[in-house]
Amino acid sequence: MDLFSSVNEDTKYQPLAERMRPKTLRDFAGQTEILRGALGKMIAQGQTPSLIFFGPPGTGKTTLAKIIANTTASEFVKINAALSGIGDLRNIVKAAQDQLKFYRRRTILFIDEIHRFNKGQQDFLLPYVEDGRLILIGATTENPFFEVNAALLSRVKIVRLSKLTVDDIKKILRRAVDTEGFSAEDRALDIIADFADGDARMALNLLEQAAFTEKISVDTLRDLLGEKIRRYDKLGDTHYDIASAFIKSMRGSDADAAIFYLARMIDGGEDLKFIARRIVICAAEDVGNADPQALILANAAAQAAQFVGLPEARIILAQAVTYIAGAPKSNAAYLAIDRALADVKSSADEVPKHLRDTHYKGAKAFGHGVGYKYPHDFDGHFVRQQYLPATKSDAHYYEPTTQGAEAAIKRRLETLWRE
C-alpha cells in the first residue's frame, strides 16, 4: 500500500469521534469567526495556502485539514512529528511530485504536533512549501512563534483556533446522538458538554462510553465520572460559580473561603492554567500597588504549578491564594487604565511637541523635543513639565489609595505634582 492508498474499512469499529468527523464546512461546529473570513472563502473556492493551526485539543485542527483536502481535491497525507523523520519526509515529497506530475493533484501534508519537529526537519520542508509541491498544514497546541522556525513561519499563515463553546459541543453531541440512534437525556448532554471544556473529542469519547448503557443519563455519567461530576452538574455549583466565588473570596480577604474554593476546583479536576490565571488577574486587579509583590508571587506560582504539576502544585497555589487574600487591596491601577481607555476612545489628542521623537533628520525643524527637560539633570531627578496633551492637562486617571505600599506611592505623587 502506498501513501495515497485508501482502505474501505468498516466504520463501525472506528471510535465515535472518528465516525462523527465532519467532511464539509457545513457540518463543522465552532470557529465561526475564522470560517466567515478569508480562510473560509479560500476553502470554499478550493484554494488554500500553507497553514499552521494553533489551538487547544479537540478544536478541529485535523478535521479542518481533512475538509480542506476534500474541498480542494488534494491528496491528504497525515504524519505525527513525534514519530516521523527526514526519511519519511523524503518519501512523501517524492510521492507528492509523482501525484503532481502524473495526476495534476496537489498534496496536503498534515503534520500533527509540528512543534516537535527539530530545526533540520523544519528546514527540509522549506523549498517544497515555497514552490508549492506541498501544501503544509501543521497542528500544534503550543505557540508556534516559540516553537516553529522563523523561516517556516514566514511561508505559512497562522490560524488560531478557539476553544469550542458549550453550545458548539452540544451541537456535536446532538448530531452524534441523532446519527447513532442513542437514547440520551438532555441534562446528560449538558453535563458532558460542560465536562469536555471545549474539547469535542473528549465529549464524543465520553458519550460513546456512556452509550453502552440503555440510556445516557445523569446516573450513567455519575458512574463514569465519579465525584468529578459535582463540578459540572448544573443542579449543583457550576464551574463558573465556583471560579467566581474563588475570586471574590480572595478580593474580600477571606483566606479560608479562598482555600475552600481552590480545593473545590482541584478536587473537580479543574485545569491548573485556569486556576493560575485567576490568581494572577486577582493579584493585579484587586491587590495592585497596595502590595506589588503579590503579582510577582502570583506569576511565579503560575509557572511553578505548571512545572511541578499535581499533586504538589496544590501547595504552590495555596501559598499564592493565601498571600493574595491576606494582602492589602487596591483596584486603583485597574480603574486608572479603564478611565484612560474611555478617554482615548472619545478623543484624538496630540502629543506635546517637546515630548515627540527627535531621532530622525529634520525633527527639530518641526519643533520636536524643543524645551524638553531631562529629569535626571535636576535635583531629586524630577522637574515639573507638561506630559499630557494640552487638552488633557487637568486629567487624573490614577487615584492611589492609602492601602499598604500604595500609600507611599500616593504621598510621593502628591508631593511631586499636587501640592
In short:
The protein is of the alpha/beta class. 50% of the residues lie in helices and 6% in strands. The longest helix has 18 residues, at 86-103.
Question: Describe it for me?
Answer:
It is a single chain. With 419 residues, this protein is of the alpha/beta class. The protein has helices spanning 16-19, 32-35, 38-44, 61-71, 86-103, 119-130, 144-147, 150-153, 166-180, 186-196, 200-210, 218-225, 229-232, 239-251, 255-267, 272-287, 293-308, 313-326, 332-345, 406-417; strands at residues 51-54, 75-80, 107-112, 134-140, 157-160. It has a 5-stranded parallel beta sheet, sandwiched between helices. Helix 14 runs parallel beside helix 16 (272-287) and helix 16 packs parallel to helix 18 (313-326).
Give the secondary structure arrangement, pairings included:
Blueprint: H1 16-19, H2 32-35, H3 38-44, E1 51-54, H4 61-71, E2 75-80, H5 86-103, E3 107-112, H6 119-130, E4 134-140, H7 144-147, H8 150-153, E5 157-160, H9 166-180, H10 186-196, H11 200-210, H12 218-225, H13 229-232, H14 239-251, H15 255-267, H16 272-287, H17 293-308, H18 313-326, H19 332-345, H20 406-417
Parallel strand pairs: 1-4, 1-5, 2-3, 3-4
Helix pairs in contact: 9-10, 9-11, 10-11, 14-15, 14-16, 15-18, 16-17, 16-18, 17-18
Can you tag this structure with a few keywords?
419 residues; 6% strand; alpha/beta; five-stranded parallel β-sheet; single chain
Low-confidence stretches: 1-9, 232-237
| Total beta-strand segments | 5
The percent of residues in helical segments reads 40-55%
Largest sheet: 5 strands, parallel
**Main β-sheet, spatial strand arrangement:** 2-3-4-1-5
Tally of separate helices: 20
